[in-house]
Amino acid sequence: MKALLPLFLSVFLFNFGWSQSLSEIRSEFHAAVKTPDTSKDFHKFISEIENPNSTAKAYQAVSEALLAQVLWNPFSKLSQVMKYDKIMKEVVESDPTNVEVRFLRLAIEFNLPSFLGMSTHLEEDLNKIVNNLSNISDIQVDPMFGKYIFYFLEDTKLCSEQQLLQMKQSFNKVALATEAD
Predict the structure, then answer these.
(1) Residues 31/24, Cβ–Cβ less than 8 Å
(2) DSSP string of 132-143?
(3) CA 11, CA 138: separation in Å to the nearest integer?
(4) Does 82 score more than 70 pLDDT?
(5) Which of 62, 131, 141, 161 gives a 20 to 30 Å CA spacing to 101?
(6) Using DSSP, how many helices (H) and how many strands (E) does the chain show?
(7) Angle between helices 74-94 and 99-111 (to 10 degrees)
(8) CA 102, CA 133: separation in Å to the nearest integer?
(9) DSSP letter, residue 50
(10) Nearest to 91, CA basis, from 65, 115, 62, 66
(11) How high is the pLDDT of residue 60?
């Protein structure tokens, strides 16, 4: 039994530490989205993560795309977007059911200029997100981040009123369950 205690503690501390890191990643991501001038800081921050899981790797891909906003040279911008595309493709292939990964790809592709022809996964990602966010209690998405996804989908008008209502009802159920705990 004594031999299991260090293993249990290391697993617990690793998971607890990662949760905090993911919260920090999301916070840094929000800052970079709100203030594009901080995208270089976000890129540096996210690039320093060793052995990232698929979600962190998706944020690394996103950081490449966000850098394109602050570059002035069109070829450099395109190069950054190509780096994003390559990394994100690998991430989605390795973890196709991850809603957060799908949302990140959707958000970037929604904002890419259409002439690049790189916004080919919008419908696929939207369907994956909507189908899973309506069951948010069954998936591993932080409820606050789920709300962020919901507001993005509502603001961009990518979803129908029915889809938004279905997701909102799920969020309310999760909120009630959280309050009961």
Answers:
(1) no
(2) HHTTGGGS---H
(3) 23
(4) yes
(5) 161
(6) 8, 0
(7) 160
(8) 11
(9) S
(10) 62
(11) 97
Cβ atoms of residues 41 and 32 within 8 Å: yes
Residues with Cβ within 8 Å of 74's Cβ and at least 6 positions away in sequence, in order, are none
Nearest to 153 by CA among 126, 113, 128: 126
Cα separation, 124 vs 99, in Å, equals 12
pTM of the model: 0.80
Average pLDDT over residues 38-44: 94
pLDDT one-digit tens code per residue, 3-33:
333 333 333 333 334 444 888 999 899 899 9
Tally of CA atoms within 13 A in the half-sphere of 70 that contains its CB: 16
Q: Which of 60-69, 126-135, 152-161, 168-177 has the lowest mean pLDDT?
A: 168-177
Encoding tokens for residue 106? 């959707």
Quote the CA–CA distance of 84 and 66 in Å, as a whole number: 9
Give the C-alpha separation, 126 to 166, whole Å: 14
Residue 92 in tokens: 């989605």
Give kind and range of the element (H or E) at residue 13. Answer: helix 4-34
> Please, what is the Cα angle at 18 between 54 and 34, to 5 degrees?
75
Q: How far is CA 122 from CA 45, 153, 155, 165, in A?
A: 28, 12, 15, 20
